[in-house]
Structure formats: structure tokens, C-alpha cells
């Protein structure tokens, strides 16, 4: 496993998060629903973008992030990104944060799949950084933070060999291998199958520096071509375009990593409902559904926002948690229970959580980054 994968994951997922939040905040600001109209002004949206970006690219945070280290687990990474999303006045409920994390992961997974060559992972990352820079262009201080992070990325990754970039890509693919969440945008564009797996094209330009497949050339001992033949490739390929720019600013050539969301298409940030789970799991979910969060904080400040444009969408996303979400252990199915049963169940769950606590607290991965976020 590469020890330099974490910065790529964090920046690309953070970039996708900013894209989605920016699109959703604009959608809420222009919503026809009177209950939400005007809650989020354009000034609020820019403040959220600036605050999250400033935290994401703060000097101490970046220095800690760039240290060689193993890639975090999904649980730890999701915790760090949740703290990042709450670095401003905005707050997301757990269902919205779960959905946001799924959207970020699947978008970046698709970009890694389509990456022409391992080194182009940097171009995807730089596209994210370029777009983030554009989102905060009216705040010079934050733009300087983004530029400084970009320079450090160039310094760290420009000297890596092709083999090291291949190891980075393999590490990312292992990290994504169990994620098959279906997204409306990908299903609509037919780049994702109903089972959540991507349908990759066998056509298009080949990676930079690679010949178009379909030709076999035979050379003699003196290096002279003596024979050539052709074979069917199963696709339609073309010569590669020019190589993208790996500097601070320039033409990246590839479009992977740019913002694919628009305010006019809120359905592009929807996940699709998963198949029904087994009846036994539904029974357990109904029992757990009435549990009350006895430790819920009452002192949080800021504005709460649903990631969806309607309550119906939010309910659909909560209900769609099935086998694909088993990695997070979340089931959001509500059922009526009497007060005494709910209280007893909550106490039992609380004891269970306390017993399991050492399993997570013994791991310090991500603690430094979380502590820095608390100090910012």
C-alpha cells in the first residue's frame, strides 16, 4: 500500500464535497418552496465555500496530511470529512452526510477508473484544486492557501516514478472495491449498470505516449521491420491528445475532476433506492427505529440543511439504506414503539457502544487531523 495516497483521497473527495454543497446551496437559494426560500443567500453560500476551503488547506492541516501514512478506513475518513463539512455555519444531518459521502466516493471512483494512466491521477487532483480555487476566487487569503497546497503537491508527487503512481492507483482501487452505490447521474448517462458497477467504454483516445492498438509489427535481429499485421481490437481508438499540464496553472487536457453538477439538475445528486432487505433485517430495523439519541447535543449552532430539495427525497435516501450501507451499520427505518421499550432498547445499545469503545479509541489514525480541525 502506498503511503502517499491519503492527500489524493482527501483533496479529491473534499473537492467533490464542495461541488455538491455549492450546487445544493444554490438550489435551496432558488427553490420555489416558501419554507426554504431565502434561507441560504449567495453570501451564505460563499461563506460556506470559503470556510470549508480555508480549513481544508490550512498550513498545519496540510503539513499533517502530507506526512507519509497509511490510508484511513472509511469510518475514520468519513469522520474527518464530516468535521470538514461542519467547519462553517452549515450543518448536515446524519442521513445527508451519509449520502454526501456516497456521492463523493462514487464520483472519485469513476474518475480513477477512467484515469488514462496512473500519473494522470495528479491531473484529476489538479482539476479539483483549480475548481476549488475558482469557487473562492473572491477571497485572496483563501486563494493563497489553495496555491500553497498546490505547490506542496507538486513538490511531493512530481518526482514519483511510474511504478509508484501505479501503486497509488492500486491502493485507491482497493479502497473503492466494495462501493457500488447507484447514482442517478451515472445511471442516466448509462455509465453505471443497475447493480452499481461501472460500464467502461472500449473506445476513445489512448493514454499519452501509447500507440493505438490493432497493429502487430515484427522486427529482425537488426531492428528492421520485416512484417506487420492487424487484429480486431473490439473498440474504436484514436491517437492520444497532448499531455496535460502538471504545473500550478495550465491546460490539464482531461476533464476528469471538474465540477459535473449544476444547479438546474438537482437529481444528479440523488442515489437510487436499494432493493428490499430480508424480512429479518426489517424486523430488527423496526425495533431499532424508535431508539432515541439520549446523548444528542442541544448546543450546536449554525444552519441545518437537508442535502435534498424536498423532505420526500430525504426520506427516500434514509429508507434506501440497505446491504450497501452495512459498512457503516446504519439503518433508518422508523416504527412505532412504546416509551418503555424504546428507553430500555436505548440503554442496551448504550452499553453495547461503551463496550465497543476501546476498539476505536485504540486507533490514532486521523486523530491529529481531527484535533487540528477543532483548533481552527
- Judging from the principal axes of the Cα atoms, what is the shape? globular
- Figure out the total of helices: 13
**Could you state the order of secondary-structure elements as H and E?**
HHHHEHHHHHEEEEHEHHH
Oligomer: single chain
Number of strands: 6
Strand order of the largest sheet: 1-6
Q: pLDDT under 50 segments (min length 5)?
A: 31-38, 276-280, 290-300, 310-318, 320-337, 355-363
SS-derived structural category: mainly alpha
The overall pLDDT average reads 78
What fraction strand? 5-15%
Question: Could you tell me how far the N terminus lies from the C terminus, measured between alpha carbons in angstroms?
Answer: 31 Å
The residue fraction in helices comes out at: 40-55%
At a glance:
This protein has 13 helices and six strands. It is mainly alpha-helical.
What does this structure look like?
There is one protein chain. With 376 residues, this protein is mainly alpha-helical. It is 49% helix and 6% strand. The protein has 13 helices and six strands.
SSE arrangement:
Blueprint: H1 6-29, H2 42-56, H3 59-65, H4 74-85, E1 90-92, H5 94-114, H6 121-135, H7 140-157, H8 162-176, H9 184-188, E2 204-205, E3 215-219, E4 225-230, E5 237-238, H10 279-289, E6 303-305, H11 311-319, H12 339-361, H13 367-375
Parallel strand pairs: 1-6, 2-5
Antiparallel strand pairs: 3-4
